[in-house]
Amino acid sequence: MPRIRFPRRVKPGDGRALERFRWWQLFTGRHLFYLDINRSGGGVTRYALDVRNGEDDRVAHLYRDRLQIAKSALPARLSLEEGGVIEVAQGAAGLKRVHYVTATGESLLVPDPVSPVGRRMNFARTHPIASGWVGAVSAILLLVGAGLNILQGIEPVLQIPPIMDAFGRFESPIHLPIWLNVTLGIVAALAATERALRIRYNWLLDGLGT
Predict the structure, then answer these.
(1) N or C: where does the chain have the smaller number of CB atoms within 10 Å of the terminal CB?
(2) CB atoms within 10 A of CB 40
């Protein structure tokens, strides 16, 4: 689990009804997830987590049985009546954590099938081999991007006189033209987005590679 600080900024909801996910919201950055919890007296309580772009930041809206009960800017930890919490946090390319956490463990919430995450996970179920290759290529591209960023970024740091005096002069073996750096940046961003659609996050790949 990535180390995430969850400040106490949860606000009560206003009871509004949950809106269904519409296809055009694929391009607005909306994410929608569900969590079903068995009630002690029988029946099931359905929670929904609706993450949208706010005025200044992303905001997570929590619904119980389709009525809003809480909201919070990200990162957020939202407590549930039945016990446990929903933790949600955002990375550079998308969500990096959408999990239900209890004393016994944690599990990923179920994405709405029409949402971007739901479509990517459905692709993984229906085409597991192709999905595996896409995931592997994404990881390789981000690893290459992270390595190039480190090699090119460390050179100006090591040219600071006190550091150069202590460690000697360092010249990066790689100097890429601007157009190639831009192209690699775009490719790395696409790879990071693909990983975000699978709620995958690694501090090296997804932090340094983008």
Answers:
(1) N
(2) 7
Q: In this structure, are strands 85-90 and 95-102 parallel, antiparallel, or unpaired?
A: antiparallel
- DSSP assigned state of 206: I
How far apart CA 99 and CA 109 sit, in angstroms, is: 6
Confidence tier at 181 by pLDDT (50, 70, 90): confident
For the CA atoms of 49, 96, 29, 187, the dihedral, rounded to the nearest 10 degrees, stands at -160
Contact predicate 11/72, CB 8 Å = yes
**Residue 95 CB coordination number (10 Å):** 24
Distance CA 32, CA 60 (A): 10
Which structure tokens are listed for 2? 């990535």
Kindly tell me the burial class for residue 6, based on how many C-beta atoms sit within 10 Å of its own C-beta (0-12, 13-18, 19 or more).
middle
CA distances from 149 to 5, 79, 186, 189, 202 (A): 27, 39, 14, 13, 16
**d(C-alpha 122, C-alpha 117), whole Å:** 8
Of 17, 21, 43, 187, nearest in space to 118 by CA: 21
Look up the pTM and report it.
0.79
